[in-house]
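Q: What would this chain look like folded?
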Amino acid sequence: MKIYRFKQVPSTNDVAKEIALQGERDFVVVSDEQTKGKGRMGREWKSPPGGLYFSIVTEKNPHLPLIVGVSVASALKDFGLSPVLKWPNDVMIGNKKISGILIECLDDFAVVGVGVNISKTPMETATSIKDETGKNVSKDAVLKSILKNFEKNKKKTVLDEYKKLCSTIGRKVKIKTLNKVIKGKAVDVDEHGKLVLESGERIVSGDVIHLR
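A: My prediction, written as structure tokens:
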């Protein structure tokens, strides 16, 4: 994949979309810093220097949320971590977030935005590779491992692997969607990446809080 590198951008997803709209596909935009990084549900993703921030432009695939979550988690294992996935695809170490993923679909392509905390932790509810391992790791090494796993996982079914990593399955949860708040027990994730509740309800997207 061709890689475009920047020192600072408002958002790697936005830059990636601009390039993709000119007809280019299968490339990566990486920046040392984002001034207007985006998370899910319209939230800000704090993106100070010291983190890995990148976006992949790839073909649309209904399984992308599963593929990307598994790819990032698998890559972090290469650096001595034991990550889990909080549905849909927050990458966690214990109860602290180490990586976030935002996927946006346009026309015939998808933009996959990924942020990984490498050496700095932007907030108390987060952690980083440095915090967890005490080691300084190269951002390029982490990027290379994620991209390698992503290319491999695009070509196969990752649902079983995702379920093994998903810490939400089996938990009582509160889910905030755009329109309502739902409580229940999460019992499965289906082949489309929807969270299945004990009631039979299937959730397409939302913010999950694990309840005690």
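The domain at 168-210 is CATH 2.30.30.100 (SH3 type barrels.).
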